[in-house]
Amino acid sequence: MAVPMSIGSLLLSELIEDPLYKDEGLCVLGIFGKSAMQPGSAKESLINTLADKHVFPLFGPDEPDCPGGGSFIQAYYNQESRVLYLVLTSVCDNRQLLRACETLGAGIGHSEAHDFWKGAEKQHCLQLLYLFSLCHVLLLVHPTCSFDVTYDRLFRALDALRQKALPLLRAAIKDSPVSKEWKVNCRPCPPRLLFVFQMNGALRVSGGTSGTGLGGNGTDALGGDKPKKHSPRRRLQHALEDQIYRIFRKSRVLTNQSSNCLFTVPANQAFVYVVPGPDEDPVGALLGQLRANCALRENDTGLSVSGPRRYQQMRHAARQPSFTVENSSLSSAGGQLVDCTLKEFLWQHVELVLTKKGFDDSVGRNPQPSHFELPTYTKWAQVACRLYQVMIDSGDEETAELAAKVQGQLKVLEGFLDADAKFSENRCQKALPLAHSAYQSNLPHNYTTTVHKNQLTLALRVYSQHARGVAFQRYALQLHEDCYKFWSNGHQLCEERSLTDQHCVHKFHLLPKPGEKPEMDRNPPILFHNSRGRSTSSCNCGRKQAPREDPFDIQAANHEFYQILEEKCCAKLERTHFPVFQPSTLDPAPACDEVPQPPESGVVVVVVGGSGDGERLKEKEAVSHTPGDSTSLSLALSLGQSTDSLGPYGDGGEGQEKRPSLVDRQPSTVEYLPGMLHSGCPKGLLPKFSSWSLVKLGPAKAYNCHTGLEQPGFLPGSAFLLPWDVVIRCRAEEEAGLSEPLDGGPSSWPAPNKALAGKRGGVGGLGRGRRRDDVARAFVGFEYEDSRGRRFLSSGPDKVVKVLGPGGAKEPATRVLNADMPLYIPSPAQGRGLKPHYAQLSRLFIVVPDAPLEITLNPQVQPGPPPCPVFHPEQTELVLPPDGLWVLRFPYSYVTDRGPCYPPKENQPLASYRVLKGILRANTASTPPQ
What we know:
Layout: E1 5-6, H1 7-12, E2 27-33, H2 44-51, E3 72-78, E4 83-89, H3 94-103, H4 110-132, E5 137-142, H5 150-172, H6 180-185, E6 192-198, H7 232-250, E7 272-275, H8 282-299, H9 308-318, H10 329-332, H11 342-354, H12 377-391, H13 397-408, H14 414-417, H15 419-440, H16 449-466, H17 472-488, E8 534-538, E9 545-549, H18 554-568, E10 574-576, E11 589-590, E12 604-607, E13 616-619, H19 635-638, E14 671-672, E15 693-698, E16 722-727, E17 775-785, E18 791-796, E19 799-800, H20 814-817, E20 821-822, E21 824-826, E22 838-848, E23 853-857, E24 861-863, E25 878-880, E26 884-889, E27 894-896, E28 899-901, E29 913-915, E30 920-924
C-alpha cells in the first residue's frame, strides 16, 4: 500500500499482498494522542520517520469526508517491514479542534456546546477502544515533555467501557477464524503502551552549559565534575517512566496480571521516548541523515534471499547499535551512553511481536502468562471489519442491533470523562429541594395562575443562587414541570372572575350543563362559580331588598335577580318593555364579531304599523325598534345590505317619503347580540334580555316632597328628590313663533332680577287673562347603592342629599342634570376596614307633574376610561308621559364583547366612570319637539 487511507476504505478494499509476505504475520501499531500546530510535530510525521518514506504530508492528512471535530482512523500498511500503522485523529489534535470550533457557530448555548464536546469525546473513546482491541503496540504521542494526568481518567473510562461492551464484542467476532483466546478476550494480546513526548524549550541548552544543569556532553564551567553516564534527555525519560508507572499503579490501571489490564508496560525495557527538539543547524542535520542512509546502503550485501530470512536480514541491517560508547576522549573517562533513535526505541518492541515471543509483562510472585497471537493480514482484516461495523460504522443490518447496544454502553463514560457535568448534576439536585420549598412557602390550598407564576419566579431565583454548570437548564425545566404538577394536582383554583372582579373560590371545575346537577365527587368536579361574595340589592322599583350572590355572567347580574324579586314586589306595576331578540328559527346563533361602528346622532326611526295609515315616519324622536310587526323589510335588509339598492328612496329628497337607512333597519331574527347593547355594537342586533328596567310606581302625587321616598335602605335625610322647575309657555297669538325645548338649561330660566312674564306683579305682565300654571315642578333623584344595601340620593357629582328639617330638598336639580354624574362614589357610611366602599348609581327617580309637559329620557353610561364604549338601553329617547313617578333601574354590571367593565380599584380615578349629561329633556306637550 503506497498511500495511507481510512480504515473503512482499507477494510472494504481487496489488498493485493506480495506472495513473499502473504503467509507471514503482521504487527499492528496504533498511534494516538495530542499534537501541536507546529509543522512536522503531528503524529503522522512519526510514521515518515519509522518507514523512512514520505507517507504523510508535512501538515497532516486532509480528510474531506470527516466532519468538523470528528474522529477518524487512517491506515498505512508497510508490507516490507510487516507493520500496519493505524493513526487516530480526533479533537485532541489542534487541526481537528479548529474545525470543531468553526462548526460551532454563534448562538450556541453553553449546554449545547458542552453536549457537542462530550459527544465528540465519547466517539473518540470508542475509536480508541477499537485500537486497543486490534493493536499489538500502541504509541501515545504528546506535544510536550510532561505527562498529562488526564490520561489516567481516560484509561479508567476505557477499561470500564471495555468490560461493559465485552459480551457484545464477543458476539461480533464469534465466527472469525482466530484463536479461542482472541474470541474470549476480543484482542490478539494485551497491547503494550509506549509514550513519545515532544521536546519543548525546557531542556534546550547551549553547548557551554554544565552537565549538572541538564547540559550537553561537557563539563561544567569550573571543570571539576565528572560527566554523567546518561544524557539529560535519557534521565528525563527515566523520570517520566517512574512517574507514569506510579500513577497507573495507584489508580489500578496497571495490575500484576497483564491479561486483566487494558494495556501493559514493559518491566525491563524503556517505554518512554523523548523526541529531541529541532537542530539549530538544519543543513548539518540533513547531511547527517544523508550520511546515515548511505551507510545503510553500503552494508547491504546484495544477496537475493527470500522469505523470513530475507526479512530478518533486512531488519537487522537496518538497525544500529542502541547502546554504544563514543570512541572519543569521553570513553576513557567513563563514557556517556549514546541516545537511541525513535526507530530503534520502537523496533525493540516490534521485534517481540514479529518473532512471536509476545509480551511477558505480568509481575508479582506468581505471574500468569498472557495470550498472544500473530495473525496474518487476512485474518486480522476479518476481525477488524466485524469490530468496525459494531463499534464505528454500522452498515450491516445484522450488526445494527449490536452497534446500537454498544452506543448505549457509552453512558459508562459519563462518570469518568464528564466530571464537570457530574458536579453540575449533584449541585443542581441539591438546589431542587430548596427551590421546591421556596415555591410551596406561604401558599394557600388553591391558587390561581398569577400566584403560580409568582411562586415559580421565586423558586427559580432560589434555584439560580445554588445551581451551577451545564445541567442548570435541564433541572430548571424539571423545576417548571414539578411545580406545574404540584399546582395542577388538586391545587389549581378556578380562573373565572366574577363581574365584580373576584375569583371563584372553587378549585378547577366544570360548569353544569343545562339540566345537570352539581357533583362534588367528580374529577374535575361539576360546580357553579362562587366567589363567596354576597351583597344586598333592591328590586327594579326599589321597594324591596334582598341578598344576592356575586354574579359571574351578565344574565344573572342584570336579569335573573330582578326577575325573582319582581314576582314578589313589582310584577303588577306599569312598565316600559324594551325591545329584545325575537327568534324566527329554532336554533338562533349569537352574532359573530363585526367591526364596531360609532353611534350616530339624529336617528331616524321607523315605526311599522298594521293599520291602514301605512308607514308613519318621525324624525328626531325616540321610538322603539319594535321587531316583527311587519314583513315589509326583507331579511337581507335587516342583516345589513347596502342602501344603494333602495332606488329613488335612498336620498330622501323633499316631498317624498324617506326609506329606512341601515342604521334604522329592522333587527335580525336569526342572530342575537351575545352581550349588552353599547355604542360599539353592530347595528340591527338585539340581546336576548334587557339589562335595563323602567317602571311606574304611580301618579305624581305618589311622591310627597315632605317625607321623601318611603323605601328601605336609605340613609337618614337622603331620600328626598331634587326639585326641577320647568317653565311652560302657553301658545298665545303673540307668541306663535316662540317655542323652545325646556331641558333645564339656561334658556329655561329667566334672567336674573327679572320676573317671569305672566306672573302677578311682573313687569310687562299680560293681565288677568294669563294662566297661572306657567311653571311646572318635576322631581329628579339619582340614587346610589353600595354592596351592603345602603342607599342615598345625590345632589351633585360630589354631594349627598341631606335634609334635616321639613320641606324637602332645597337644591335644584339643574346641577345634576347639566353635569356628568359619577357612576361610582365613595359610600358615606364607610366600614372599619381600610379598603374604601363604593356606591354605584342604581336608579333614577323622575316625577313628571300633571301638566302639558313631556320629559324625554336618554341614559348613556360610560363605565370606564376611554376607549370604553357608551352603554344605552335597547330603546333610546324614551318619552315619559305626564303625571307619573317613574324609576329607571341601571344595569348592575356592564359587559362588552371583550369582557366585563370591572368596578374601579382604589388607585383608579372615579371621574372616568360616569353617566353622560343630557339624560333628561323637557318639552311642552302642545309644541312638537324641535
